[in-house]
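Autophagy-related protein 27
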Amino acid sequence: MFALMPFLGSAIFALTLGLEFTAADEKCLIDGYYNYESLFKSVWRAEIKGHCLRPTSTDCSWYFQFCNEVPVNPCGIGHACEVNTSGLDPLSIGTFQKILPLDRSSFAVRFEEPVQGSLVNITKCKDKKITVNMIFRCDVERNIVVGPGAELTKINYTPLIISTDCERNLTVPFSGACTPEAPTDGLSAGSVLLILFFIALLVYLVGGILINHNNGARGWEMVPHHQFWSELPGLCVDGCVFLSSTSPAKVAR
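Structure:
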């Protein structure tokens, strides 16, 4: 019994570790056929002008890290971080939460940070939660490339959108946010023509049978234009024989 205790402890530890990795993986997975895996290879840095969360800072830089463990983030792995223009005095402005699909042409990476303790007097948010969203929007001409071995990569963005003092939305043009076109609703022209053809054929057969039945026809004679349809195979054979007999090779002979 006691010999099994170390084994059971190892099994429980492995199971717990596996559950943690599964939860972390789920945060980084979204549906929609986005091509976003290249974003996991680096920590991202954006230069911010006039929208820093510290009220005493006009310009600053933000670090964003998600779905990797590259050890270059001043605020630690998995955080959004604000530093001054010298790259010092790091302030965590969010912990990575998850990747969210927004529509067929954009998705967001969300960071959230509760403002409490010493942060109350440091940021513009006072006692409210800080939310920072990296919104990647479709632009087929803007690909984001991470160089070999690059742990920190500068990212370009469109003008910052501020919802409140405590929320920042950073929009990044990115070709990986462009998903394949959804199939159009409705039927194609060919499908519509086929449906109309079979409806007309059904009306022709049913209507003709009813009319012929009322006129006293029975059995095969109820089929509309039954004589024509019975002679059609023979007419086709005669046509093929005629064409073969009048071919240029035989005429030349």
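The chain has two domains: 23-177, 189-238.
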